[in-house]
Design goal:
Shape: globular
Largest sheet: 5 strands, mixed
Radius of gyration: 17 Å
Oligomer: single chain
Helix content: 25-40%
């Protein structure tokens, strides 16, 4: 399960209990209006984003969960701001260089979001998708103007991890532009019309 981090964030690891972590995120959002989750590695971040989906479901069912005043026609969603940071490890590599690992930060809060002004740009993501190219595509879609959206669709931990990193990189690109463009990610699972798993259940893909 997630445990509090030294910076008051919740920490997700590769074997975290998604339901319990989702409940912890929802409780933190209810109490403080904000929950930050940090994780290292593909498996941990995959569980982390699934826990965020679970937290969003808990909060939608909670009449006490509040968001800023919602304009007419807007939806209240658990929205994420994503960022990443390289952290130096104590152990050194064989060549004597300091080893580094990338930490993913997911900052979640309830926001009132208006529907996009046009259909979102759909970006399929696979395990081998080039992160830089995907980040550039996200940034390009969001530079079009206010109310625009991009929609990444991914199946499996590796593809979802690529999508998360690309979203964080895309925000860096937009900050570099200096035009004040920022965005949030609203993760959801979507059932595929065609495709079932070994138990006959509908396959799902994560939409970011």
């Amino acid at each position: 399960a997630g445990v509090p981090g030294g910076d008051d964030s919740l920490v997700v690891n590769a074997d975290a209990n998604v339901a319990k972590l989702g409940a912890a995120i929802a409780a933190r959002v209810r109490a403080e209006g904000l929950a930050t989750l940090r994780g290292i590695g593909q498996k941990a971040n995959y569980r982390g984003i699934k826990a965020m989906v679970t937290a969003g479901e808990f909060l939608r069912q909670d009449p006490g969960a509040q968001a800023p005043t919602a304009p007419s026609g807007s939806d209240v969603e658990l929205a994420l701001s994503l960022s990443e940071s390289a952290v130096v490890q104590e152990a050194k590599q064989q060549d004597g260089q300091q080893a580094k690992r990338t930490v993913m930060f997911m900052e979640a809060r309830l926001l009132a979001l208006s529907p996009p002004v046009s259909p979102p740009t759909v970006l399929p993501v696979a395990s081998r998708t080039n992160v830089g190219n995907l980040a550039a595509a996200i940034a390009h879609a969001l530079r079009s103007g206010p109310g625009t959206a991009a929609e990444m669709r991914a199946m499996g931990g590796a593809a979802v991890h690529q999508a998360l990193i690309a979203a964080a990189v895309a925000q860096k690109y937009l900050i570099t532009d200096g035009k004040g463009v920022t965005f949030v990610v609203v993760p959801k699972f979507m059932e595929l019309e065609h495709g079932q798993d070994a138990d006959g259940r509908r396959s799902k893909q994560l939409v970011l």
